[in-house]
Input
Amino acid sequence: MKNEALLEVKNLRTYFHTEAGLVKSVDGVSFRVEKGKTLGIVGESGCGKSITSLSIMQLVETPPGKIEGGEILFEGENLLNKTEDEMREIRGKKIAMIFQEPMTSLNPVYTIGKQITEALLLHEKISKHEAKARALEMLKLVRIPLPEKRFNEYPHQLSGGMRQRVMIAMSLSCNPQLLICDEPTTALDVTIQAQILELINELKEKTGSSVIMITHDLGVISEVADDVMVMYAGKVVEQASTDEIFENPLHPYTVGLMNCIPKLNSDVDTLPTIKGMVPSFDNMPKGCAFCPRCSMAKKICEQKAPELVDVDGRKVRCFRYTKEWKEEA
Amino acid sequence: MVSYISKRIVQTAVVLLGISLVTFLLLQVVPGDPVALMLDRRADPATIAAVRHQLGLDLPLPQQYLNFVNGVIHLDLGNSYFTKAPVFASLFRAFQVTLKLASLSFLFAIVLGISCGMIAALYRGKWLDSSLMTLSIIGVSAPSFWIAIILQIIFGLKLNLLPISGFDTPIAYILPSIALGTRYAGSIARITRTSMLDVIKQDYIRTARAKGAKRRAVIIHHALKNAMIPIITLVGTELGNMLTGSMLIEKVFSIPGIGKLAVDSMSNRDLPLLEGTVMYIALVFVVVNLLVDISYAFIDPRIRYGKGAAS
Output
């Protein structure tokens, strides 16, 4: 804990009260984001990574969703104690967010310019004219060609990559301390993906802001993240630095994810997968949530849910690193 | 934008020409001879033939059609067989009355419908939503003449606040406008709610909230404009319906509008008046549709620029 934490989430629990029952989308998640660093959150669809980020912004639809407990400390203040008006001051100004679908995340009936200046006019005491100048500057910063022309265009006139650049320009326009990127490159071509990641990295360096990068793609993590948190079924299963996790993944799920990355020099017809699916909320195993898909599972994994344990300064939620494992021969 | 609008105007003209042909042909095959109705039953064949000649009904059909179209273009729709008054003048007089009634009930329906629909969408699942939607169902299903009579009894006879018939003072239009507008307000409220709920789920609404915009500002600026397309489609049809007159409401409140004119012309086999009325109704719907299409383009840039503009 050498650096100062910008964001510290402690035991966050966000549940959804649906007609079919209670869904624990985020179930006791804790992590910290240091100033100027990037935290990667990895996991399959439905593991709770997006809900975690929406919880930080307090944009979870209530009902059915509800933040049931925990703390979200941003610059030392608990965001969960803020009023809606205070949260509005933080959204877009101190914490900004980029979403997965650049196609649908921009409003189709307003020009790019109007949508970028909206954030500026909300948070900064500047005139429309100054806001336009700032917006053009931002468009140049994210390397959009012909910014003056693009300023008056509508989202449908731009390509997917351009739209995501606009989203980035929009979210960075008020110089936020924390940028949350929810799968920012998933909907884009591979080449565009690389450009966008490079851009996010570069702007992060320039502005000194912290980033939370949510993705299911370990390749993205290896490029941008300093630390990694692996989530499974609403819980953290492993936390470590990016180097550590790529060198030596501890949790069988992380190992499985690593094995799923195709290697250039291997000559196989079928790509490796993790067998089975994320368990649905009404079919959650009694023991470890990953147990039904785990090739190393023992009896104890079916009976008890593992706790997050410390292993050499890293955290992992698996019985393999506990005394019980060795006792059960 | 300009090319889009001019294209739509040309299409409109073609549609009107088609309607005039269909109207003309349909009225030829309608049973009943207008001349026989006009004259005494004992009129001799020579008189009938003379009258037919005088009205141009003995000409070949294509010639009759051309005369009709020529008249329409010169705003000359002939004279009524019965009152002998020019059809255009009668139509125009009835139109002025209907226009007042339609504008008032349109305003009533839009303001009430859109605001109720938005409130219901914002309070989805709450008691306010359910009660507004129950009211809208009642509004949509209750027959307009029934509402008219109830309004007359309550506000006219019991409370003695508003006149129950007539068309010469502005307050005389209040009850008929409400009676006519209630049904439309109900359906506008329902489509507004559905459309708003659909738009509120969209990603760009979340983006706007993530920027720190107020919930109310997000609803009004980001959601409503996107939700307008289905609402405008419905509102356009309803405006057409209102402008072409409501026979029932006009009957209950004794208002001499287009509805009454249409009924009279039909029961009298008054061909010129009937042709004129049908052409008027067609014109109203075509023009309203044109306006609806043009307003789409103002609301949604994707329509304005067409498919080819997306890169």
Notes: Chain B touches chain A through 25 residues (CB under 8 Å). Confidence is low (pLDDT under 50) at residues 307-311 of chain B.
